[in-house]
Amino acid sequence: DAGVTQSPTHLIKTRGQQVTLRCSPKSGHDTVSWYQQALGQGPQFIFQYYEEEERQRGNFPDRFSGHQFPNYSSELNVNALLLGDSALYLCASGGVFRGLETQYFGPGTRLLVL
Amino acid sequence: SQQGEEDPQALSIQEGENATMNCSYKTSINNLQWYRQNSGRGLVHLILIRSNEREKHSGRLRVTLDTSKKSSSLLITASRAADTASYFCATGRLYTGANSKLTFGKGITLSVRP
Fold first, then answer.
1. Which of B61, B88, B92, B85 is nearest to B75 (CA)?
2. Domain ranges (residues) in chain B
3. Do A55 and B98 make contact, defined as CB atoms within 8 angstroms?
4. Cβ contact A96–B98 (<8 Å)
5. What single DSSP character describes residue B60?
6. Does some domain include residue A114?
7. At A46, which CATH number?
8. Total domains in the fold of chain A
9. Whole domain around residue A82: which residue ranges?
10. Are B88 and A42 a contacting pair at CB < 8 A?
11. Do B100 and A94 touch (CB under 8 A)?
12. Residues contacting residue A78 through CB under 8 Å, at least 6 positions apart
Protein backbone atom coordinates (compact mmCIF):
# COMPACT_ATOMS: atom_id res chain seq x y z
CA ASP A 1 0.00 0.00 0.00
CA ALA A 2 1.74 3.14 -1.23
CA GLY A 3 1.77 6.09 1.08
CA VAL A 4 1.49 9.71 0.06
CA THR A 5 3.80 10.50 -2.83
CA GLN A 6 5.02 13.88 -4.06
CA SER A 7 6.95 15.07 -7.07
CA PRO A 8 9.43 16.44 -7.72
CA THR A 9 11.60 16.03 -4.62
CA HIS A 10 13.62 19.17 -5.29
CA LEU A 11 13.11 22.19 -7.51
CA ILE A 12 15.04 25.36 -8.24
CA LYS A 13 13.28 28.35 -9.80
CA THR A 14 13.97 32.03 -10.25
CA ARG A 15 11.86 34.93 -9.06
CA GLY A 16 8.79 35.58 -11.16
CA GLN A 17 8.55 32.06 -12.49
CA GLN A 18 5.68 29.66 -11.92
CA VAL A 19 5.85 26.21 -10.37
CA THR A 20 3.58 23.15 -10.16
CA LEU A 21 3.93 20.54 -7.46
CA ARG A 22 2.14 17.21 -7.48
CA CYS A 23 0.74 14.89 -4.85
CA SER A 24 -0.88 11.46 -4.88
CA PRO A 25 -2.80 10.60 -1.70
CA LYS A 26 -2.62 7.38 0.25
CA SER A 27 -4.88 4.67 -1.12
CA GLY A 28 -8.44 5.06 0.16
CA HIS A 29 -8.03 8.73 1.04
CA ASP A 30 -10.12 11.44 -0.58
CA THR A 31 -8.80 14.72 0.81
CA VAL A 32 -5.52 16.44 0.08
CA SER A 33 -4.09 19.30 2.09
CA TRP A 34 -1.03 21.38 1.28
CA TYR A 35 1.35 22.89 3.80
CA GLN A 36 4.35 25.20 3.53
CA GLN A 37 7.23 24.72 5.94
CA ALA A 38 9.88 27.41 6.08
CA LEU A 39 13.26 26.52 7.56
CA GLY A 40 13.09 26.17 11.34
CA GLN A 41 9.31 26.62 11.44
CA GLY A 42 6.31 24.36 11.71
CA PRO A 43 4.18 23.65 8.65
CA GLN A 44 1.56 26.25 7.73
CA PHE A 45 -1.74 25.29 6.15
CA ILE A 46 -2.22 26.50 2.57
CA PHE A 47 -5.48 24.84 1.51
CA GLN A 48 -7.41 21.60 1.40
CA TYR A 49 -9.21 19.87 -1.45
CA TYR A 50 -12.09 17.45 -1.27
CA GLU A 51 -14.37 16.33 -4.09
CA GLU A 52 -12.29 18.44 -6.48
CA GLU A 53 -13.14 21.65 -4.63
CA GLU A 54 -11.10 23.90 -2.38
CA ARG A 55 -12.76 23.47 1.03
CA GLN A 56 -10.55 25.50 3.32
CA ARG A 57 -7.80 28.01 2.83
CA GLY A 58 -5.10 29.43 5.06
CA ASN A 59 -3.56 32.90 4.93
CA PHE A 60 -1.88 32.60 1.58
CA PRO A 61 -2.24 34.96 -1.38
CA ASP A 62 -4.04 34.10 -4.58
CA ARG A 63 -0.68 33.33 -6.19
CA PHE A 64 -1.14 29.96 -4.53
CA SER A 65 -3.75 27.86 -6.28
CA GLY A 66 -4.55 24.21 -6.56
CA HIS A 67 -6.51 21.51 -8.18
CA GLN A 68 -7.79 18.07 -7.32
CA PHE A 69 -8.39 15.46 -9.98
CA PRO A 70 -11.06 12.72 -10.10
CA ASN A 71 -8.47 10.16 -8.91
CA TYR A 72 -7.96 12.37 -5.80
CA SER A 73 -4.44 13.44 -6.75
CA SER A 74 -3.69 17.12 -6.47
CA GLU A 75 -1.51 19.92 -7.79
CA LEU A 76 -0.25 23.05 -6.08
CA ASN A 77 0.56 25.97 -8.36
CA VAL A 78 2.49 29.03 -7.30
CA ASN A 79 2.70 32.01 -9.67
CA ALA A 80 5.09 34.97 -9.66
CA LEU A 81 7.52 33.27 -7.30
CA LEU A 82 9.15 35.31 -4.57
CA LEU A 83 12.32 34.55 -2.65
CA GLY A 84 10.16 34.00 0.43
CA ASP A 85 8.39 31.12 -1.28
CA SER A 86 11.50 29.01 -0.75
CA ALA A 87 10.35 26.23 1.58
CA LEU A 88 9.46 22.59 1.96
CA TYR A 89 5.99 21.97 0.54
CA LEU A 90 4.17 19.11 2.17
CA CYS A 91 1.09 17.29 1.02
CA ALA A 92 -1.14 15.41 3.45
CA SER A 93 -4.03 13.09 2.75
CA GLY A 94 -6.95 11.99 4.84
CA GLY A 95 -10.42 10.57 4.47
CA VAL A 96 -13.53 12.64 5.06
CA PHE A 97 -15.91 9.97 3.83
CA ARG A 98 -14.43 7.39 6.14
CA GLY A 99 -14.09 9.84 9.01
CA LEU A 100 -10.35 9.60 9.03
CA GLU A 101 -9.05 12.48 11.10
CA THR A 102 -5.45 11.40 10.93
CA GLN A 103 -3.55 13.00 8.10
CA TYR A 104 -0.59 11.29 6.49
CA PHE A 105 2.18 13.38 5.00
CA GLY A 106 4.31 12.84 1.95
CA PRO A 107 8.08 13.37 1.86
CA GLY A 108 7.71 16.91 0.56
CA THR A 109 9.06 18.99 -2.31
CA ARG A 110 11.90 21.34 -1.46
CA LEU A 111 11.58 24.53 -3.50
CA LEU A 112 14.40 27.01 -3.79
CA VAL A 113 13.68 30.38 -5.40
CA LEU A 114 16.72 32.33 -6.55
CA SER B 1 -0.26 32.07 12.58
CA GLN B 2 0.75 29.11 14.72
CA GLN B 3 -1.54 27.98 17.51
CA GLY B 4 0.49 25.29 19.18
CA GLU B 5 3.48 26.21 21.24
CA GLU B 6 5.79 23.40 22.19
CA ASP B 7 7.98 23.42 25.24
CA PRO B 8 10.91 23.08 25.54
CA GLN B 9 12.26 24.21 22.19
CA ALA B 10 15.15 21.78 22.48
CA LEU B 11 15.75 18.72 24.63
CA SER B 12 18.87 16.62 25.01
CA ILE B 13 18.78 13.34 26.93
CA GLN B 14 20.71 10.13 27.33
CA GLU B 15 19.57 6.96 25.64
CA GLY B 16 17.24 5.02 27.93
CA GLU B 17 15.86 8.12 29.63
CA ASN B 18 12.31 9.37 29.19
CA ALA B 19 11.54 12.47 27.12
CA THR B 20 8.60 14.70 27.96
CA MET B 21 7.43 17.36 25.53
CA ASN B 22 4.62 19.81 26.13
CA CYS B 23 2.27 21.66 23.85
CA SER B 24 -0.13 24.49 24.59
CA TYR B 25 -2.80 25.90 22.30
CA LYS B 26 -5.24 28.77 22.29
CA THR B 27 -8.58 27.92 20.69
CA SER B 28 -11.01 25.01 20.89
CA ILE B 29 -10.02 21.86 19.07
CA ASN B 30 -11.48 18.56 17.90
CA ASN B 31 -8.23 16.64 18.10
CA LEU B 32 -4.53 17.04 18.73
CA GLN B 33 -1.90 15.13 16.80
CA TRP B 34 1.82 14.64 17.35
CA TYR B 35 4.21 14.25 14.44
CA ARG B 36 7.91 13.51 14.08
CA GLN B 37 10.18 14.92 11.38
CA ASN B 38 13.67 13.70 10.61
CA SER B 39 16.14 16.12 9.03
CA GLY B 40 13.60 18.28 7.21
CA ARG B 41 11.86 15.39 5.54
CA GLY B 42 8.17 14.49 5.61
CA LEU B 43 6.17 14.31 8.81
CA VAL B 44 5.47 10.94 10.40
CA HIS B 45 2.21 10.67 12.31
CA LEU B 46 2.74 9.41 15.87
CA ILE B 47 -0.55 9.62 17.69
CA LEU B 48 -3.93 11.37 17.67
CA ILE B 49 -6.00 12.20 20.71
CA ARG B 50 -9.54 13.50 20.48
CA SER B 51 -10.88 16.35 22.56
CA ASN B 52 -13.04 13.97 24.63
CA GLU B 53 -10.06 11.77 25.51
CA ARG B 54 -7.59 12.36 28.31
CA GLU B 55 -4.83 9.86 27.66
CA LYS B 56 -3.67 7.51 24.92
CA HIS B 57 -0.85 5.06 24.56
CA SER B 58 0.96 3.70 21.53
CA GLY B 59 4.02 1.55 22.13
CA ARG B 60 6.56 3.74 23.94
CA LEU B 61 4.42 6.83 23.47
CA ARG B 62 1.98 8.27 25.96
CA VAL B 63 0.02 11.41 25.21
CA THR B 64 -2.23 13.33 27.54
CA LEU B 65 -4.69 16.10 26.81
CA ASP B 66 -6.11 18.65 29.24
CA THR B 67 -8.69 20.72 27.41
CA SER B 68 -9.36 22.90 30.45
CA LYS B 69 -5.72 24.01 30.41
CA LYS B 70 -5.47 23.78 26.62
CA SER B 71 -2.35 21.68 26.88
CA SER B 72 -0.98 18.31 25.88
CA SER B 73 2.12 16.33 26.67
CA LEU B 74 3.97 13.61 24.80
CA LEU B 75 6.07 11.15 26.77
CA ILE B 76 8.56 8.90 25.02
CA THR B 77 9.78 6.20 27.36
CA ALA B 78 13.12 4.40 27.15
CA SER B 79 14.39 6.72 24.43
CA ARG B 80 16.67 5.52 21.65
CA ALA B 81 19.15 7.32 19.44
CA ALA B 82 16.71 6.76 16.56
CA ASP B 83 14.19 9.00 18.37
CA THR B 84 16.41 11.99 17.56
CA ALA B 85 14.18 14.25 15.47
CA SER B 86 11.93 17.29 15.57
CA TYR B 87 8.52 16.78 17.16
CA PHE B 88 5.46 18.84 16.36
CA CYS B 89 2.06 19.07 17.93
CA ALA B 90 -0.79 20.00 15.64
CA THR B 91 -4.29 20.95 16.66
CA GLY B 92 -7.11 19.86 14.42
CA ARG B 93 -10.50 21.37 13.85
CA LEU B 94 -13.11 19.51 11.88
CA TYR B 95 -15.30 21.22 9.34
CA THR B 96 -18.38 19.91 7.62
CA GLY B 97 -17.41 18.36 4.34
CA ALA B 98 -13.71 18.60 5.02
CA ASN B 99 -10.95 17.05 7.00
CA SER B 100 -9.17 18.59 9.94
CA LYS B 101 -7.27 21.78 9.30
CA LEU B 102 -4.05 21.29 11.23
CA THR B 103 -2.30 24.16 12.98
CA PHE B 104 1.28 23.39 13.97
CA GLY B 105 3.67 24.75 16.53
CA LYS B 106 7.31 25.49 15.82
CA GLY B 107 8.45 22.11 17.06
CA ILE B 108 10.80 20.62 19.61
CA THR B 109 14.26 19.36 18.70
CA LEU B 110 15.00 16.15 20.58
CA SER B 111 18.54 14.80 20.72
CA VAL B 112 19.10 11.38 22.24
CA ARG B 113 22.75 10.72 23.06
CA PRO B 114 23.94 7.11 22.69
1. B61
2. 5-113
3. yes
4. yes
5. T
6. no
7. 2.60.40.10
8. 1
9. 7-105
10. yes
11. yes
12. A18, A19, A21, A63, A64, A65, A85, A111
CA distance A34 to chain B (A): 10
Q: How far apart are CA A68 and CA B75, in angstroms?
A: 37
Closest of A19, A7, A5, A4 to residue A86, by C-alpha? A19
Query: β-strands B19-24, B5-7: how paired?
Result: antiparallel
Residues 6+ positions from B9 with CB-CB distance below 8 Å: B106, B108, B109
List chain A residues with CB under 8 Å of B33: 102-103
For residue A101, being part of any structural domain is answered with: yes
CA distance between the termini of chain A: 37
Domain B5-113: homologous superfamily in CATH:
Immunoglobulins (2.60.40.10)
Tens of pLDDT along chain A (114 residues)? 679 999 999 999 999 999 999 999 999 888 999 999 999 899 999 999 988 999 889 999 999 999 999 999 999 999 999 999 999 999 999 876 555 678 899 999 999 999
Question: Chain B residue with minimal CA distance to A87?
Answer: B40
Residue A113 lies in a domain: no
Choose the closest CB to A102 out of B41, B48, B98. B48
